[in-house]
Structures are given as structure tokens and as C-alpha cells.
Specification:
Elements: E1 15-17, E2 24-26, E3 44-45, E4 48-49, E5 54-55, E6 61-69, E7 75-81, E8 87-91, H1 98-110
Antiparallel strand pairs: 1-2, 3-6, 4-5, 6-7, 7-8
């Protein structure tokens, strides 16, 4: 038995490079919650098959396309894979880019699918 025992009590932080902007991102947010998207541009990589709940071979870039708000009030980022079109939802993190989150949240109001002039005749 060795008299020298090594104990590793440090938290191993894994990182990933953003598929869109190239930023090196921690896989964990500041509060310790797991993160799967870039806090700067909100893009992600398609590494999980959400239909079969396992790893995905796609590896396509996941573009943030919308915000969904759950009944609990929690915000989710909706991503669409640019390669296979799979949709996913992921919780936002406290340090996500607030300007991009708000732009996505108000987009349906700023760009409605019908002419706003129709409200003038009601």
C-alpha cells in the first residue's frame, strides 16, 4: 500500500465550443445547473435524441427559434436542428444573454402573421 494517497476533491468542469460563435462554454451555469447551450448566442449542438432519449448521431447546430413559458413561469429556449429539423426545449440559465431572450420573446408581437391594420376595423 502506498503511503501517498491522492484525493481529487476538485470539481471537474467540462466545456464545449459553441457551434455558432465559437465561445468556450462551461457545461454548468454559475448556479451549478447543467447547460447545453451558449449563454452568449443561445445556440447549441444536437447531441441528444429527444425522441428515443439517448445520444444522437446528428451533431447538427441547434438554432434558438423561440421562447416558451411554462405554467410555473420558467422560461424555455426552443431549438431547431438545422440538419434534421428536430425541435427541443431547454431551460434558460441565469447568465443567458437577456437581450436575445427578450428579442425572441417579443418577436411574435413585433412580427405578427397577420396585418395589424385589421384591429382598426374591430
Amino acid at each position: 500500500m502506498s503511503s501517498h494517497t491522492t484525493t481529487n476533491n476538485t470539481l471537474s468542469l467540462s466545456t464545449f465550443a459553441c457551434a455558432w460563435c465559437g465561445l468556450t462554454v462551461s457545461a454548468y451555469a454559475a448556479d451549478g445547473a447543467p447547460r447545453n447551450h451558449c449563454p452568449s448566442c443561445l445556440h447549441s449542438r444536437h447531441v441528444r435524441d429527444h425522441v428515443e432519449d439517448g445520444p444522437s448521431d446528428c451533431e447538427g447546430r441547434m438554432s434558438p427559434i423561440a421562447i416558451a413559458v411554462l405554467r410555473t413561469g420558467d422560461w424555455m429556449v426552443i431549438h431547431r436542428c438545422v440538419r434534421c429539423d428536430e425541435l427541443t426545449s431547454n431551460p434558460i440559465c441565469a447568465d443567458d444573454n437577456q437581450l436575445i431572450l427578450m428579442r425572441m420573446a417579443v418577436r411574435p408581437l413585433a412580427q405578427p402573421p397577420f396585418p395589424l391594420e385589421a384591429f382598426g376595423t374591430l
